[in-house]
């Protein structure tokens, strides 16, 4: 199996893993990310955690097929239960889940995060909820990235121990993504504006409250987009 052909999204996630880190990949699925990182010489060992039996077996098979069973420990466990203190995990990756679910996974075993140096998180939605959780639990977002793949947009956030306060706008759009205003960021939110404007056109004029709420959402996005010009 040529894991070097992992998705653009996972390659971007991999780029934020520090050299020689000991990682836990939560919801590792086929263990593509840990295998890729070892192939690249980025890490020497990893834990691939999976809570579902099918993906767990797939990860075990892929790790064995790549002769990495001595370097990647595949564990059937729920979230952060996949590692213990003796594993000395310093980086946790959680990618490809909803932002609310990622926050729940972190919250369920938050005491284990005290020894973790970095979180690399890629939510599929509800990014604002995840940012809010991080700031409320002594984490600060230090970097962000956004990629587009197969017509979908994926935000990646890097968090480390520390204090940070974000306003509602920063929670929704991402403090670094807002500032950088990359082409992918602009594309994502322009598409969102187009979608909302089409939805607004279908709301009857008499529904003033609904129309006002929709118009406010559109206005907020446009203000953020124009701020970068």
SSE order and pairing:
Elements: H1 8-14, E1 23-26, H2 32-39, E2 46-50, H3 53-65, E3 72-76, E4 91-97, H4 99-108, E5 118-123, H5 127-136, E6 139-149, E7 152-161, H6 168-173, H7 175-180, H8 183-201, H9 208-227
Parallel strand pairs: 1-2, 1-4, 2-3, 4-5
Antiparallel strand pairs: 5-7, 6-7
Helix pairs in contact: 4-5, 8-9
List the defining traits of the structure above.
229 residues, alpha/beta, 7-stranded mixed β-sheet, elongated
Brief write-up:
It contains nine helices and seven strands; from the N terminus they run H-E-H-E-H-E-E-H-E-H-E-E-H-H-H-H. It has helices at 8-14, 32-39, 53-65, 99-108, 127-136, 168-173, 175-180, 183-201, 208-227; strands at 23-26, 46-50, 72-76, 91-97, 118-123, 139-149, 152-161. Strand 2, helix 3 and strand 3 (72-76) form a beta-alpha-beta unit.
What does this protein look like?
The chain is α/β, with parallel strands linked by helices and 229 residues long. Helix content is 43%, strand content 21%. The chain has nine helices and seven strands, in the order H-E-H-E-H-E-E-H-E-H-E-E-H-H-H-H. It has a seven-stranded mixed β-sheet with strand order 3-2-1-4-5-7-6, sandwiched between helices. A hairpin with a 2-residue loop joins strand 6 and strand 7 (152-161). Helix 4 runs parallel beside helix 5 and helix 8 packs antiparallel against helix 9 (208-227).
């Amino acid at each position: 199996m040529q894991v070097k052909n992992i998705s653009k999204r996972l390659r971007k996630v991999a780029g934020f893993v520090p050299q020689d880190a000991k990682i836990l990949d939560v919801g590792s699925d086929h263990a593509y990310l840990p295998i890729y990182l070892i192939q690249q010489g980025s890490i020497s060992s990893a834990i691939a955690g999976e809570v579902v039996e099918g993906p767990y077996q797939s990860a075990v098979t892929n790790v064995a097929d790549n002769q990495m069973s001595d370097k990647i420990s595949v564990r059937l466990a729920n979230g952060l239960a996949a590692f213990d203190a003796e594993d000395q995990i310093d980086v946790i990756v959680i990618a490809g889940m909803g932002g609310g679910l990622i926050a729940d996974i972190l919250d369920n075993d938050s005491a284990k995060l005290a020894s973790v140096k970095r979180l690399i998180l890629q939510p599929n939605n509800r990014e604002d909820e995840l940012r809010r959780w991080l700031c409320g639990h002594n984490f600060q977002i230090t970097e962000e990235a956004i990629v587009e793949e197969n017509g979908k947009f994926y935000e990646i956030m890097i968090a480390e121990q520390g204090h940070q306060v974000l306003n509602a706008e920063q929670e929704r759009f991402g403090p670094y993504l807002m500032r950088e205003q990359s082409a992918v960021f602009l594309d994502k939110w322009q598409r969102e504006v187009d979608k909302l404007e089409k939805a607004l056109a279908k709301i009857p004029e008499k529904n003033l409250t609904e129309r006002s709420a929709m118009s406010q959402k559109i206005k907020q996005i446009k203000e953020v987009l124009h701020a970068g010009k």
